[in-house]
Amino acid sequence: MPSGSDPGAVLDALERAEDAFDEVGHGVPSYEAGIEPGGDWETQLTKACRLLEVVAVLRERDGYHTAVTELCFGATERSIEAYAVAMAGDEVADFRDHEYSYERAHQIGLFEAGTAEAMMDLYGENRTESYYGGGRPTEAQATAMSDLARAVHGFATAQIREGGVCRCD
User: Fold this and answer.
1) Which of 1.10.10, 1.20.272, 1.10.3860, 1.20.120 would CATH assign to domain 35-159?
2) How is the chain split into domains, by residue range?
3) What is the b/e burial string over 117-139, where b = at least 16 CB atoms within 10 angstroms of the residue's CB?
4) Average model confidence (pLDDT) for the chain?
5) For the segment 108-155, what is each residue's pLDDT rounded down to a tens digit?
6) Which residue, 18, 29, 78, 124, has most beta carbons within 10 Å?
7) How far is CA 8 from the centre of its chain?
8) H or E segment at 94?
9) Torsion angle of alpha carbons 7, 10, 14, 17, nearest 10°?
10) φ and ψ at 84, to 5 degrees?
């Protein structure tokens, strides 16, 4: 609860954000195009598609390595989650811990243990430093993360028996 000493602009913006997420006073919600509704694996997969689309836009603008790196970790995790929900019966709510996606990728046979551990280590050692720490991602790191995210997304999408959901290309 606000204490009364916080800036009015922050409190007003906070209230608008809370209302927006509660969908109060905004009429008919206008959801992002290109993301499948329902919260199931299709939603996770198409969120990954949209994240990868934004990565491509940012990379065309020559820079934004931090944003690209962050979005690539997100796209990788959404792709793994889509596979886990579609093929192993997981619930989206199971994936509240970022590292769980990588653990689960091995448990359900999407990736071998060494690959899943390497991806989890990459996340643990580099995402945290680039996002929360003093790290400044390089162009080479952003390029490598983009390549990894696209490879994971393509592989996970190809392993899901029901096709036609991916929005990439």
Assistant:
1) 1.20.120
2) 35-159
3) eebbebbeebbeebeeeebebee
4) 91
5) 999 999 999 999 999 988 887 777 778 888 999 999 999 999 999 999
6) 78
7) 32
8) none
9) 160
10) -60, -40
